[in-house]
Fold:
Amino acid sequence: MSEAPFSRRLLSVAGMDELGAYRLLRVADPDTPEPDPGQFAMLAAAERWGGGYDERPYLPRAFSIARRSGAESHFLLEDLGPGSRRLSELRAGEQVWVLGPLGRGFSPPPHGRRAILAGGGAGIAPLAILQDTLGGEASVLLGFRDAAHAAGARLLRDAWVATDDGSAGHRGPVTDLLAHELERDPMASVYACGPAPMLEAVRAMAAALEVPAQLALEAPMACGFGACFGCAVAARRGGYLRVCIDGPVIDAAALDAVDPHAGAPA
Structure:
């Protein structure tokens, strides 16, 4: 597991790319430890990072590391609130605070099992770096609400796409595509990240078919180090798991159900 430097780093924005309804923030980050697929970083803009009449600072925001490309780290953004909106406004040359890589990432599939990557909405982000690591053997299934969001599928290669409204690809949830793939190859391993209802459907499907599955959860975080317990989710045998240090990637078998607050935006 790659571990973050003790302190956050002030880095320069290398660029911002448009992917339909999403933005891909590219940060010049030559000295970071190489992340494991599924790890995340805490981000905060260096300037204008606050709101209200007294400009109270926002908490840093947790984002999956979508890709490492040369000396850059990439993060997939969607404008969903004041923090993500401010990050989406950043342009080349501006600066951002980065703390990471943090958390536990994906494990390789067992020998003889093919990987199926299933993502929904902004949850496609950690699957991009996972695809880069696994190479060309993995199947990629991505679900979005509409065609504008489905443009985010360009982050990965050779993806099968589903949309809720049928404006791109298969009409229906991405779990339709997953059910078809598992019927075709019941010896596969599933890697998933997306909205909580999607992750719960993947968990239930994997349990019913006795297929190994790893879920990348995205619960609200304030610290990233397990101190605040804001990201705790219920474990199968009692107690709680902290998404930031016990995850964000957690074996589906460790959960009775995916908590409603533990998913990526749709």
Remarks:
- The domain at 115-254 is CATH 3.40.50.80 (Rossmann fold).
- DSSP finds six helices and 18 strands in the chain.
- The longest helix spans residues 196-209.
